Amino acid sequence: MKGSPPSAAYFAVGVLLLLFGAGVAGALEESSRPLLFVQFVVGVVLFALSFWVESRKDRAMAAVVRWRDRAVGGAAGARGLAAIGRLLERMSAWMLAKGGGMLSWVLGIAGFLVARDAVVRLWFPQLMGGA
User: Fold this and answer.
1) Is pTM beyond 0.85 here?
2) What is the DSSP string of the chain?
3) 44 vs 79, more confident
4) Range of 22's domain?
């Protein structure tokens, strides 16, 4: 089966995380203050990146259109690949309509949540039931 190797790899990663994840998390918990600052920076960068992605949406759309035109142009020569060309046109239209905004929202929300968690753990641990 073609789907077996990735599934086996994901299963192996899951088993490794299950076996060693708790030990690694415990070790990181002891020296967590520097890691929380890194987490905060990562969250802020993701949040800022969401605005950058949104501002470059037009350029990204142009790149998708160029990609579609190259793919469809190559597919137009073969009769059997015409259906693939139509599918690519539909996919690119959907990505143009929904893709850019969705990515920036996901980055912004993820960045906010990551940074917020770090802020609470660093400066307001009492909100989490800690000392």
Assistant:
1) no
2) -TTHHHHHHHHHHHHHHHHHHHHHHHHHHHTHHHHHHHHHHHHHHHHHHHHHHHHTHHHHHHHHHHHHHHHHHHHHTSGGGHHHHHHHHHHHHHIIIIIHHHHHHHHHHHHHHHHHHHHHHHH-GGGGT--
3) 44
4) 1-30
d(CA 26, CA 107): 28
- Are residue 38 and residue 83 in the same domain, yes or no? yes
pLDDT of residue 130: 56
Query: What whole-number distance in Å separates Cα of residue 9 and Cα of residue 7?
Result: 5
72 with 100, same domain? yes
Domain count, the chain: 2
The reply to whether 71 and 104 lie within a common domain is yes
Where are the strands (E) in the chain, listed by range? none
Cα distances (angstroms) measured from residue 2 to each of 12, 13, 77: 17, 19, 29
| Domain identity same for 67 and 21 | no
25 with 82, same domain: the answer is no
